[in-house]
């Protein structure tokens, strides 16, 4: 009888953490002394990865998957690959804190190719569900408090494609920044994150897009609604669509193009 009571108590104690993870937040901390980290996300549903910079020598990862579970492991041949896995449930929300000066590579699930890489402060990266559609949780997600980053890297891709403009109110393109970034006032999904071709999928709610292009970019094409809206060839910048407002900012050190689609369309030549 005594051994039965001990076994029952042990089962109750072991079941506690699993139930807490399923409905709460799973957290882990890792000591990390390298200067590069690769983050591989594997998920059965759509979700978001929020990346922020923190203290040296430490990686912190937290995840919540309502009705599902998550796990984290730091490994790889050189111990610099962080694997984040979520199973079941609805939308996965992951917060990752990496050291301030660590170079970060992010490989998202359901991406056709490539990875997002940056040594700069990152924002929010979103991925779709396995069928290419947003999960019900993602569609119901509230708007971010500030523009949410969908893609960031040190270099601009050769082509940035935003095929759907139905929800776009304004697309602001700044040429002259120190790194490449695509952000918006709503969550967006990255369909492709390679160094040559990035595709951004907007949602159904009205939103503004902000695109920053490094000053040293010499080969870049922006496609909006299936048409070439802007190109950079060498030092020449050409805009092909209207309505657009062009401004010189920072005393001429940078240029800004603001496109305002009408009913999801631009007039392009």
Helices and strands in order:
Layout: H1 2-23, E1 26-31, E2 36-43, E3 47-54, E4 58-65, E5 68-75, E6 81-88, E7 92-99, E8 103-107, E9 116-118, E10 124-127, H2 136-139, E11 148-153, E12 159-162, E13 168-177, E14 180-184, E15 189-193, E16 197-201, E17 207-214, E18 219-224, E19 227-233, E20 236-239, E21 241-242, E22 244-249, E23 254-259, E24 267-268
Parallel strand pairs: 2-6, 2-8, 3-7, 12-16, 12-18, 13-17
Antiparallel strand pairs: 1-4, 3-10, 4-7, 5-6, 8-9, 11-14, 13-23, 14-17, 15-16, 18-19, 19-20, 21-24, 22-23
What can you see in these coordinates?
By secondary structure, this protein is mostly beta strands. The protein has 2 domains: 25-141, no CATH class; 144-269, no CATH class. The chain contains 2 helices and 24 strands. It has helices at 2-23, 136-139, and strands at residues 26-31, 36-43, 47-54, 58-65, 68-75, 81-88, 92-99, 103-107, 116-118, 124-127, 148-153, 159-162, 168-177, 180-184, 189-193, 197-201, 207-214, 219-224, 227-233, 236-239, 241-242, 244-249, 254-259, 267-268. The strands form 5 sheets. The chain has a 6-stranded mixed beta sheet, with no helix packed on it. A 6-stranded mixed beta sheet has the order 15-16-12-18-19-20, with no helix packed on it. It has a 5-stranded mixed beta sheet with strand order 1-4-7-3-10. A hairpin with a 2-residue loop joins strand 18 and strand 19 (227-233). The longest helix has 22 residues, at 2-23. The N and C termini lie far apart (85 Å). The model is unreliable at 1-23 and 133-141 (pLDDT under 50).
